[in-house]
Amino acid sequence: QVQLVESGGGLVQPGGSLRLSCAASGSIFSINTMGWYRQAPGKQRELVAHIRPGGSTIYADSVKGRFTISRDNAKNTVSLQMNSLKPEDTAVYYCNTRPAGWPEGSGSWGQGTQVTVSS
């Protein structure tokens, strides 16, 4: 089973930046879709971005142009660069991995890292 460990969360002022990282164990990393989800208090978990093995990406409309997802298959890591952060980006962010063909939201999850955007 794949294990995921996130890091990089914290408190940042509106307009600031943070970079989240996720380290994955297991040799299947390079053939899995990797994603970042978030869950704000009282809301459902939602997809932020995902990146397929070939490098194609999908972003939620709310983060397009501000967030960038990337992966390093040699290091088994996936990152989320978050710029121009807004208070509404405050949430627990989760790393996710799923094999090709598995539905969105399935697969393995990290423990989550808190991102708080506040002045």
Low-confidence stretches: none
- Tally the beta strands: 11
- Our measurement of the CA-to-CA distance between the termini, rounded to an integer number of angstroms, reads 40 Å
Number of helices: 0
Look at the helices and sheets and give the structural class: mainly beta
Major sheet characteristics: 7 strands, mixed
Gross morphology is globular
Rg over C-alpha atoms, rounded to the nearest angstrom: 13 Å
Topology:
Layout: E1 4-7, E2 10-12, E3 18-24, E4 32-39, E5 46-51, E6 57-59, E7 67-72, E8 77-82, E9 91-99, E10 108-109, E11 113-117
Parallel strand pairs: 2-11
Antiparallel strand pairs: 1-3, 3-8, 4-5, 4-9, 5-6, 7-8, 9-10, 9-11
Please provide a written account of the structure.
With 119 residues, this protein is mostly beta strands. The protein has no helices and eleven strands. The chain has strands at 4-7, 10-12, 18-24, 32-39, 46-51, 57-59, 67-72, 77-82, 91-99, 108-109, 113-117. The strands form two sheets. Strands 2, 4, 5, 6, 9, 10 and 11 form a seven-stranded mixed beta sheet that branches. Strands 1-3-8-7 form a four-stranded antiparallel beta sheet, with no helix packed on it. Strand 7 (67-72) and strand 8 (77-82) form a beta hairpin. It is globular. The N and C termini lie far apart (40 Å). The model has no long low-confidence stretch (mean pLDDT 93).
